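Checklist before submission:
- one chain only
- standard amino acids only
- sequence pasted in full

Submission:
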Amino acid sequence: MVNVVDEKVNQVVDRSKRISDPPGFELPLLLFAGFRSIIDRLHAELAGQGHPDVRPAYGFAMQAVGRDGATASEIGRRLGVSKQAAGKTVDKLEQLGYVERADDPADARRKVVRLTARGFDSLGRSEAIFEELRKEWVAALGADRVRALEGDLRAMTPSDGFRLDVASWFGA
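Returned file contents:
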């Protein structure tokens, strides 16, 4: 029996086969492959720059913590996961030295999670690496095509921004 899924999915990766009007499933697969290639390269670079333990989910979690800090409940809401799941991620980030917990000055019963200098360093390096990766895309595709792609993606995504809950969306 022929595995139709493998045949169809392999068409996406087989660049020698050009499809004049590709099937609908190809677009999300290509978007994901582009996303994945950028994220994988980012993490390889981060590892080489002193952050070998950072995983994609940790990057989203640090973004959810934000510049001003957040409670575990807020982090969970921003990521679309339970407070307990957010707490486990925060525990791991704390063990790795990327965040710290502190008393909330507005409510002594609550703890606020804040990025440490290591957390800010990781995010700063990520920003610089993303800039370099974008330059590679510009070198390969041309500045006009990359700007057009970015514009098209902005036009097709919600105008109220994007959600950080990628990890929960994938069931992580």
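Reviewer check: Strands lie at 99-104, 107-115.
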